[in-house]
Fold this sequence. Notes:
The chain is an alpha/beta fold and 300 residues long. It has helices spanning 10-24, 45-50, 68-80, 99-106, 108-116, 136-144, 186-195, 205-219, 221-228, 232-236, 241-252, 263-275, and strands at 6-7, 29-35, 56-61, 84-87, 124-130, 162-165, 170-174, 182-183.
Amino acid sequence: MPSDQIQWFPGHMARTRRLISENLGSVDAVIDVRDARIPYSSANPEIDRICAGKPRLVVFNKASLADPALSEVWMDRCRSRGLQCLLTDCTEGRGVRRIPEAVASLCADRLERYAGKGMTGRKLRVMVLGIPNVGKSTLINRLAGSSKARTEDRPGVTRELQWIPAADGLYLLDSPGVLWPRISDRTCAENLAITGAIKDAVLDTDEISLILISRLRRYYPSLLAARYRLTEQEVGGELTDAEVYELIARKRGFILRGGEISYDRTSAMLLDEFRGGTVGRITLDRPAGGRTGEADPEDA
């Protein structure tokens, strides 16, 4: 990563924040989508400020890729802050059908007021927010029952706000993913990079791959060993992360002429396999005290 304080495309992000702020007054509630693998790192701190006073449902998406035991811990910590939250997986459809009921519960007073004005059956207007690549558009398509929101497995696909009618009394506003302008927590920025919330084109993917290996050696050594056919000594011994990286490259046959390893192929493979869940169910944010690596659950 280029520095301890990371700045990402401030002009684009400022425009997105402005669009969100301008349209927030027209919605009844907010769905705050996060990545269950990084429930702390994917919590945009600006959403608290922008959406203050609006009913909010926190959705921890991509739950099938996350460590289930840690997901439950993060859910408990989220509820302890008085936030309503759900675990979902939009690819599999897990938990998505619970969202309309949860939103209706959050908006019970509004629905009662609408009914008092003779507006029974009025759809709740809900803005879907989150950082890039957490699955907002996929979630919307699941709720809408069709592919109305454009989706790809990379950040920055949604460019404009768009209203999409959904079943079960919801009218959804899809929004571009927005990162905060400066990320001062280096570990948070690294986690965003590993999961693909930040475009690979602006990163040193070799460095990010080494960071991923370090995280896996620390938190999930058995999964790392099993996936890449490493021994317990190779994973937990005195080898450096760079030496483990090279060992994996050679075991996979990513060798160039002259015996050098192919860094491009190795890094791409490591990140793709982590992001696709091939390595196993992994959560990078650890619910313990401190803001670096072991995230403060009170801030999640």
